[in-house]
Amino acid sequence: MKEAGYYDESTNGVVVMVEPYSQKELIQQVVYRILDANLDRAREGLRIIEEWCRFGLNNAQLSGECKHLRQEIAVWHTTELRAARNTPGDRGTELTHPQEEQRSSVKSLLQANFCRVQEALRVLEEYGKLHHPNMGPAFKQMRYRVYTLESNLMGYQRQQMLWRSRLYLVTSPTETLLTTVEAALKGGLTLVQYRDKTADDSLRLEQATKLCQLCHSYGALFVVNDRVDLALAVDADGVHLGQQDMPIATARQLLGPQRLIGRSTTNPDEMQQAIAEGADYIGVGPVYETPTKLGKAAAGLEYVSYAAANSSIPWFAIGGIDANNINDAIDAGAERVAVVRSLMQAEQPTLVTQYLLSQLNRIKPET
């Protein structure tokens, strides 16, 4: 960019005197560079998101929305703005941050690029007001559409993972909590619930944070038992509610539409009510008597068979299921099971996980 004041510019050996920009023109060029940089940033971020929607999720609707947004942004990326680009003189190209050097999971990659796009659109909305009267309102609406896209994409991805999950680990307090869960994740586990009824909140927050990061690094879903506030604090994928916990509608209002909500059920009436209230999945049990549900009679395999014939949402048979009786639950109609002691107390959680999944994966996939 030419600086204010007279100076020489040499081209092919010919020295030419160049008129300076006026102060107004200088500001205009700066605005053009800001718009050009953020138009590039928004389009690049959307393309990264679009590729996952297309190849990772095979979702034409979400990838189509990304493409339409990119095309709308491209209309504003005029030759005039591109001409103001000065990459060699841009000090910002040398700036970086350690978090940008690596991504721990697809989720973190998507979240980083959604932030990138949203920030760029906000810049375009504000500086665009200096460039064209319609640019600010146009990018304001695009920013809201990206918020909706993020919600829809993350919600869709969680739902897809939920439907694919066959084995669900509900944790219990133990000194080896993290190592046990990681061993199960190495065996192919894709859904974990953090459950601790006795720890103080500071410990729960610490453990839930570490477990959430661990699960996401393996591409697994992470859910918190009972506590909506804790689920939000650690950016969990959802919450699991018992019959005595808050209503599903209240939890949905707090969590938003993109996170998962599960509900424990012990009989057909509770199952139908949970489905009607908008639960994303249900627990069906206890199938057998279990010390994790002291004083609660077993629902038995009959309830498992009822759920197999009547549930329209994913459900997990739970309660006393282990390697010795999992096939009885499967024979009764279970396609997904949740376990506690059979993994949390296992000497080799990885091998037990692999065995349980091998039994569940013999079931014909849902269509």
Calculate the mean pLDDT score and round it: 91
Order of helices and strands: EEHHHHHEHEHEHEHEHEHEHEHH
Strand content: 5-15%
Q: How do the strands of the widest beta sheet line up side by side?
A: 3-4-5-6-7-8-9-10
- Sheet with the most strands? 8 strands, parallel, barrel
Coarse shape: elongated
At a glance:
The chain is an alpha/beta fold.
Structure notes:
There is one protein chain. The protein is an alpha/beta fold. It folds into two domains: 23-90 and 100-159; 165-360, Aldolase class I (TIM Barrel). It contains 14 helices and ten strands. The protein has helices spanning 23-56, 60-76, 79-83, 106-128, 135-164, 177-186, 201-217, 228-233, 248-255, 268-276, 300-310, 326-331, 341-344, 349-360; strands at residues 7-11, 14-18, 167-170, 191-194, 221-225, 238-241, 260-265, 281-284, 315-318, 337-339. It has an eight-stranded parallel barrel, surrounded by six helices. Helix 1 (23-56) packs antiparallel against helix 2, helix 4 packs antiparallel against helix 5 and helix 6 (177-186) crosses helix 14. The longest helix is centred in the N-terminal third of the chain and has 34 residues, at 23-56. It is elongated, with a radius of gyration of 27 Å. The termini are far apart. Mean pLDDT is 91; it is low at 1-10. Condenses 4-methyl-5-(beta-hydroxyethyl)thiazole monophosphate (THZ-P) and 2-methyl-4-amino-5-hydroxymethyl pyrimidine pyrophosphate (HMP-PP) to form thiamine monophosphate (TMP). 4-amino-2-methyl-5-(diphosphooxymethyl)pyrimidine binds at residues 193-197, 225, 264, 293. Residues 146-367 are annotated as: Thiamine-phosphate synthase. Belongs to the thiamine-phosphate synthase family. Residues 167-342 form the Thiamine phosphate synthase/TenI domain.
